[in-house]
Structures are given as C-alpha cells and as structure tokens.
Amino acid sequence: MGIGPRVYGIRAQGTLIRTFSGHEDYISSAAFSPDGTKVLTGSYDNTANLWDAETGALIRTFSGHGDVVNSVAFSSDGTKVLTGSWDGTARIWDVSEYADIERWVVY
Known about the structure:
Blueprint: E1 6-9, E2 15-19, E3 27-32, E4 38-43, E5 47-52, E6 58-63, E7 69-74, E8 80-85, E9 89-94, E10 99-105
Antiparallel strand pairs: 1-2, 3-4, 4-5, 5-6, 7-8, 8-9, 9-10
C-alpha cells in the first residue's frame, strides 16, 4: 500500500474527503490546481504525482529527480507544474504532454 495525502473538508468540520494513494514514501508538499480539479504532490520517493481531485485517481507521475521532491506548484493557468528537489534542480513540466520542458540547477 502506498503512502498518500489526505484531503479534509474545512466546512465539513474536518471530515475526511479523499485519500490519494500511490507514493512509495512520505509526502513533502502538495498544491491544488488553479481550477481546483487536480492535486499535485511531491514526495520523498523522488517523484511528483498529479491526481484527479474529485476521484482521487492518479493521472500522472513526474519522475526524474535524484532526491526528495520538496516543493510543487502550478502555473496560474494550470498548464504547467514546477517541482523543486533536494537534488538541487527545479523542473517545469507540461501537464498536457507530461514532458519535462525546462530544468535548472539551483545553487
């Protein structure tokens, strides 16, 4: 069984709404897409996962980092995601093509 984040409803007085299962280690960061339809998580398993916020289904795994993915974010239009890692790199991924389109080494 994988380790995954859980979403709790604030207006539902802390009731569990959804559990996302699929990561192989702890979750280090999470972000909702601007339209609220997707969730992006970064993990100690060196990957970032893209989830359907409504169903909890795994849409895509972004892999390529050599260490923990400790930060994740969506672009303002939701078409790209940014992942930052303890491996010293930040990557921009195209959500529709699931491609690593830019990579930077962070000093």
